[in-house]
Write a structure and sequence with these properties.
mainly alpha; 21 helices; globular; Sugar_transporter_CS; transmembrane helix; membrane; cell membrane
């Protein structure tokens, strides 16, 4: 006689959903704090610390190149952790990714510079940045699936926004740590030791996130897919054979969101200081002030995606991004702080609106037994083509043409790539599509 366990009550399921969303948000915020403090440090100080003896431009490009190394590692982390996340479980991979990121970040904070150990310093910096990339590469897919697979019916978009909002929350936290350091310390003290403080603080934050994540449970979707996962020895192979077009188009939808966001968070800090004549603290303040609007854009668009559909919200947001991308640098170049603040807020809000429905969109594109692999691969393809190259491309374009119009053209181009990608991407599980199909069925019956 088989005894069937009673189904969980709605209250239990609701608590599980909220706990999953909180775990996804907190862990993602801390992992991206780790990832973003590197970007901020690359813009402000890593060039002379680890690549001395070069011109300022060459040092900046070298520092941004190490930033890109993390993006090269991200698909590898996504593939490896996606494989085990589909076969072993989401939770274990989230814990692994957090440990990798925490170790690498603290190690960078302790790493001697070029003056102390010579060429070993940049070599070790690149290696640790690679480890950071592995960690964050496996993070997004797991965090998104934990949030969306545990979400209440009809609220996958809203709950899936939790790890997405963790990204600007991580940026906000990173810059709130950097801002007092740049404001209180002189350039010599900041270069000597001040820049290391945000990296070392990561140890405390990782402990908090680990405590939350160890209490998470696997989703019903994953538990139900265990048998299928046992039959599929290589989830990635099935993704590449049966869903390669979906992966490429999904990655394309993310190129602009990630690329423009990284230029907005990293390159603009350097641009405001070097070309517009503002101090580090001023530029960090502008970025910090725009982060709440970035998060608001995510929450609003994620909520709307549960009502009118992921794809429709994504198309509207991507169209708006093309327009805002064209206006951003002309507004920044006025060098008028109120106008610059408006530009930063507008770009942040639209970037958030593009990212809000992304978690649920990517999760719903793939069946549960290959979902971690498929969603992670699509996301990381967009990340490496967008975010990893954006600061280098923007710096190189400005150096070559001497005008921000070249950077604007780059922004508009990748925004158009993402718009075309979402127009071509078909999403049969979109809530709006399901509602339309239900209405057609009702009309046929009538």
């Amino acid at each position: 006689m088989t005894i069937t366990a009673p189904a969980p009550s709605p209250e239990v399921l609701q608590r599980k959903a909220r706990k999953a969303a909180l775990g996804s948000f907190v862990g993602t915020a801390i992992e991206w704090y780790d990832f973003f403090i590197y970007g901020t440090a690359a813009a402000l100080v890593l060039g002379p610390q680890f690549f001395p003896g070069t011109s300022e431009l060459a040092g900046t490009l070298a520092a941004f190149a190490t930033l890109a190394v993390g993006f090269v590692a991200r698909p590898i982390g996504g593939i490896v952790m996606g494989h085990f996340g589909d076969r072993v479980g989401r939770k274990s991979m989230l814990v692994t990714s957090l440990l990798l990121m925490g170790f690498a970040t603290v190690a960078i904070g302790l790493l001697p510079n070029y003056a102390a150990i010579g060429v070993a310093a940049p070599v070790l910096l690149v290696a640790l940045r690679f480890v950071q990339g592995l960690g964050v590469g496996g993070e997004w897919g797991g965090a998104v699936l934990v949030a969306t697979e545990n979400a209440p019916v009809g609220k996958r978009g809203l709950y899936g926004a939790a790890p997405q909002i963790g990204v600007p929350a991580g940026v906000l936290l990173a810059n709130l740590v950097f801002l007092p350091l740049t404001a209180v310390l002189d350039d010599a003290a900041f270069a000597a030791w001040g820049w290391r403080v945000p990296f070392l603080l990561s140890a405390v934050l990782v402990v908090v996130a680990m405590w939350i994540r160890l209490g998470l449970e696997e989703s019903a979707d994953f538990e139900a897919s265990r048998d299928a996962a046992g039959e599929v020895k290589l989830p990635l192979a099935e993704v590449l054979v049966k869903h390669w077009k979906t992966v490429l188009l999904a990655g394309g939808t993310f190129v602009a969101t990630n690329g423009i966001a990284y230029a907005y968070m990293v390159y603009v800090l350097k641009y405001g200081e070097a070309e517009l004549g503002f101090g580090k603290s001023t530029m960090l303040f502008l970025l910090i002030a725009s982060c709440p609007f970035w998060m608001a854009g995510m929450a609003i668009s994620a909520y709307k995606s549960d009502i009118i559909g992921r794809r429709r919200v994504y198309i509207i947001s991507s169209s708006a991004l093309v327009i805002v991308a064209a206006l951003f640098f002309p507004l920044m170049d006025t060098a008028m702080l109120p106008v610059m603040l408006v530009a930063m807020i507008a770009l942040g809000f639209v970037l958030g609106a593009c990212a809000g429905p992304q978690s649920a969109l990517f999760a719903e594109l793939f069946p549960a037994h290959i979902r971690y692999s498929g969603a992670s691969l699509g996301y990381q393809i967009g990340a490496i083509l967008g975010g990893g190259l954006a600061p280098i491309v923007a710096t190189s374009l400005f150096a070559a043409f001497g005008t921000s119009l070249a950077v604007t053209a780059y922004f508009v181009l990748i925004a158009l790539v993402s718009l075309v990608s979402i127009l071509l991407l078909r999403h049969p599980h979109d809530p709006a599509v399901a509602v339309a199909q239900s209405r057609r069925s009702e009309q046929e019956v009538a």
